[in-house]
Write a structure and sequence with these properties.
Blueprint (H helix, E strand, L loop, with lengths): L7 H4 L12 H12 L7 E5 L6 E9 L5 E9 L6 E7 L14 H4 L3 E5 L39 H17 L4 E11 L1 H12 L5 E5 L6 H7 L5 H10 L4 H9 L3 H7 L4 E6 L7 H10 L9 E6 L8 H16 L14 E4 L2
Parallel strand pairs: 4-5, 4-6, 6-7, 7-8, 8-9, 9-10
Antiparallel strand pairs: 1-2, 2-3, 3-5
């Protein structure tokens, strides 16, 4: 795929006026208050993976509507803590998979929770285990148009609430330092991490890789790749629902959450990515931490990559970056790093 979006020099300063609903804050405050009326009800069951350097637990906690959300919790064996933690969210269509698949964060000294995404887990990977018990009106196959007629019924209202409750859940665990909980994810997972970063003001760090669900209307208008093409396919049938559809999507747009976030952030973007166009990622990055002031933020640019982004290269960068800010078992953080730098991929 050739370069198709704005030139990098323009992307670096691209800060579009992305409309948001006047009741955005009230909508999410009400949503989270309702969710938190139920106990987070964390349940752990030790899993024998055959691995000796990490401990793994099958996790269930109460998400949106008190619905049970599954996950895997992995931690360094024999480390009493208090340890920093990373909550990881997953890409579109994937599930939590198998308990031995994601070991990097525990190996680096963190408690690691990977959250299953409700209703997903059958498009790639090794499967998911969390149903979505809430239905929706007419929708195009996929998840992005579920509940598109009403923001209160939209699928991602439930998912983002699950993401916040995952942070709540980790903070209740023995051996976790509740002040050092970071959130991370790739694609859809990056979009969820960005939303949680905007909704939970005291998360310690946010790491969205090639994030989905940012500057959504532009994405729908410039790419025909899924998942954004689900919206255009839906609107090709529901021709008179355009403004209502984008109004609903404005309640889940990552740019709005980025404006409200303030934790240190490490983004990544790929300039040949047709799934999450680079201008949509830069829209969120350039708005991140505004108007509160300058944020400790970096973005890693991968000029010749598509939606795979930096993959293992980016994970290595994250481990070093987060270690400098949060420390690991028995370590102190080095303090904040550079603010607002664009780091070229290599």
């Amino acid at each position: 795929m050739p370069l198709y979006d704005l030139p990098l020099a323009e992307l670096e300063t691209y800060r579009p006026d992305v409309p948001e609903p006047v009741d955005f804050d009230e909508f999410w405050a009400r949503t989270l208050a309702e969710a938190r009326t139920a106990e987070v009800d964390v349940r752990l069951a030790r899993v024998d993976t055959g691995l000796t350097l990490v401990e793994t637990y099958d996790v269930t906690f109460a998400g949106f509507g008190g619905h049970p959300v599954r996950g895997w919790l992995t931690r360094p064996a024999g480390q009493a803590g208090p340890l920093p933690a990373v909550v990881e969210y997953l890409g579109y269509g994937g599930g939590r998979g198998l308990p031995h698949e994601r070991l990097a964060w525990a190996s680096a000294g963190y408690v690691h929770l990977v959250m299953d995404t409700r209703g997903q887990g059958s498009a790639w990977g090794a499967g998911g285990d969390t149903p979505d018990p809430v239905g929706s009106g007419p929708a195009f196959p996929g998840f992005l148009t579920r509940g598109l007629a009403d923001p209160a019924e939209h699928y991602y209202r439930r998912v983002f609430t699950d993401g916040v409750r995952a942070v709540d859940a980790v903070r209740t665990l023995e051996g976790v330092d509740p002040a050092r909980v970071a959130v991370a994810g790739v694609s859809q997972g990056g979009g969820i991490a960005l939303a949680v970063g905007g909704l939970v003001p005291d998360v310690a760090a946010v790491m969205p890789d090639v994030p989905f669900l940012c500057h959504i209307r532009r994405a729908v208008e410039i790419t025909d790749a899924r998942p954004y093409s689900e919206v255009s396919a839906y609107l090709a049938v529901h021709r008179w629902h355009v403004e209502q559809a984008f109004r609903t999507l404005s309640y889940i747009d990552g740019v709005a959450f980025a404006r409200r976030a303030g934790a240190p952030a490490l983004f990544s973007v790929a300039l040949m990515d047709v799934t999450c166009p680079p201008s949509t990622v830069f829209a969120a990055y350039n708005h991140y931490g505004q108007p509160a002031g300058a944020a400790d933020k970096d973005i890693v640019v991968y000029p010749f990559n598509g939606h795979e982004g930096g993959a293992a290269e980016q994970l290595g960068r994250q481990i070093r970056w987060l270690g400098a800010r949060l420390g690991r078992a028995g370590e102190a953080a080095d303090g904040p790093g550079r603010a607002g730098a664009v780091v070229p991929g290599r």
